[in-house]
Design brief:
Shape: globular
Distance between the termini: 44 Å
Number of helices: 17
Length: 466
């Protein structure tokens, strides 16, 4: 048995887990969980609590060590956000959240000036105002940007704190809209056109590369840190036990819903641009052709608003209410920009419906079924776009992550898309993180072999259209 430590940082919570790889399966034990939230500082910036995140990760690793030394450790996280380092590799910037609206002016100016085709032709990335490209452009007048020696995305920012080694993992770099997806290298011509400082872009490494060893953290010192597919969706896709990859799609269902397929080559055609599909890199030289759909963020933000009014609702309670509100069939567009910022989500949904002359939800059940049905409809639209652009015909959808536990959403998705839905693994990101580490250590020979072990490690449910 080989033990690995996986650190998975999501946009609202983090987990540190032990993965035990045997000849029969991969066993997961989540040793430490912690919640974290974005906050607004005195200047109005929307930030991550980076000190809390790093402290909690270290606590989690310490808990794992009680059970013995690991073969290695790897970190994955959400995409696009970053920190800026000085020449001594000290963090000198705030760690902004992608939900900070500072990026909207930069997004509009740059896309207007360079044109969508120029930006998309090499990067192949979906146009979202919070991509790292627009974050960096919006930060060009900040003192921290002017003084920066380099920038690192979240997983490698944490790798640098633990090991002192500076490098950027390629699957996460591909989400920035600053990487040439065909060359798997930074798109320096685009970086120059955007007016960014090319010298702050670090060397790139692939999933499975050895980063270094933890130094300066007492009992943690000496743990080998390797790169997983450090974008959490890249790890999640690495954790899917595909049957026939050519006819199967996935939905990584969490704060965001990432809807896509795995491919050997990117697709950056005009048709793909028109559909606003993204080409993100994956483990084992794969490409994830997908689209970001706003996910459970909508319901979580509703819950947060209701909680502020002393109404505490769990997801199961809301789904139960939704199941009694099935006659309510108003739909919203989950990707409407008004839903991206935090706060007052129920009011925003009602305002959207009023503006579109749609019957607005009023009860908790109506809000919930409206959100779930709208997500299923968005999934169907995205699957159809991917089929049209790639020429593939999808027969099965794997739903991963926390959203896969909502049976009502799974059934709505199967019915909307007209195909079979298979759930899990719920912890696909942790499974994928461990799989890439095991591949790096030579414990498994191929990613396919690791996926076969994952397929034996959890119980899947199936939903068919009705």
């Amino acid at each position: 048995m080989a033990n690995f430590i996986a650190v998975d940082l999501g946009a609202t919570s983090g987990r540190v887990a032990i993965g035990r790889v045997t000849a029969e399966k991969i066993e997961l034990e989540i040793v430490h969980r912690f919640a974290h939230e974005i906050f607004e500082d005195k200047d109005g910036a929307i930030l991550w609590d980076w000190k809390l995140i790093t402290e909690q990760v270290i606590i989690g690793i310490e808990k794992c060590l009680v059970q013995g030394p690991p073969v290695s450790l790897a970190i994955d996280s959400w995409a696009v956000d970053y920190g800026l380092l000085d020449s001594k590799d000290n963090l000198i910037s705030k760690v902004h959240s992608y939900r900070d609206p500072r990026t909207f002016p930069a997004f509009e100016e740059l896309v207007s000036r360079l044109g969508e085709e120029r930006i998309y032709q090499d990067t192949g990335i979906q146009f979202l105002n919070f991509n790292t490209l627009y974050q960096l452009v919006s930060a060009k007048n900040d003192e921290s940007y002017k003084a920066a020696s380099k920038f690192l995305l979240i997983p490698d920012l944490l790798n640098a704190e633990l090991t002192g080694k500076i490098s950027t993992e390629v699957t996460n770099a591909s989400t920035t809209q600053l990487l040439d997806v065909k060359k798997r290298n930074w798109d320096f011509p685009l970086i120059q056109l955007a007016g960014l400082r090319a010298e702050i872009f670090t060397e790139l490494h692939e999933p499975g590369a050895e980063i270094g060893t933890i130094t300066g953290f007492g009992a943690l010192d000496g743990i080998k840190v390797v790169a997983t597919a450090s974008h959490d969706t890249a790890s999640a896709v690495a954790g899917i036990p595909f049957g026939d990859r050519d006819s199967e799609a996935y939905i990584s269902s969490g704060t965001w819903s990432l809807v896509g397929i795995e491919s050997d080559v990117p697709v950056t055609s005009k048709q793909a641009l028109a559909a606003n599909l993204t080409n993100e890199l994956g483990a084992a030289n794969t490409v994830r052709i997908l689209k970001n759909v706003t996910g459970m963020w909508l319901l979580e933000e509703c819950r947060r608003t209701w909680r502020a009014s002393n109404e505490e609702w769990t997801i199961p309670q809301l789904v139960d209410e939704a199941s009694r509100s099935l006659n309510f069939n108003s739909l919203i567009d989950p990707n409407d920009p008004r839903f991206r910022s935090p706060g007052k989500m129920p009011e925003r949904i009602v305002a959207y419906c009023v503006e579109k002359s749609i019957n607005p939800p009023r009860t908790k059940g109506e809000f919930t079924i409206c959100i779930l049905r709208s997500l299923a409809a968005a999934y169907q639209k995205t699957i159809s776009e991917i089929e049209e652009v790639t020429g593939k015909k999808i027969s099965t959808i794997h739903i991963l992550g926390g959203g896969s536990q909502i049976s009502l959403l799974n059934q709505l998705t199967a019915s909307a898309c007209g195909v079979k839905v298979k759930t899990g693994p719920v912890e696909s990101t942790l499974f994928g993180n461990i799989a890439v580490q095991a591949l790096s250590a030579g414990v498994v020979p191929t990613l396919s072999a690791a996926r076969a072990l994952i397929g034996k490690s959890f119980i899947s449910e199936e939903f068919t259209p009705n």
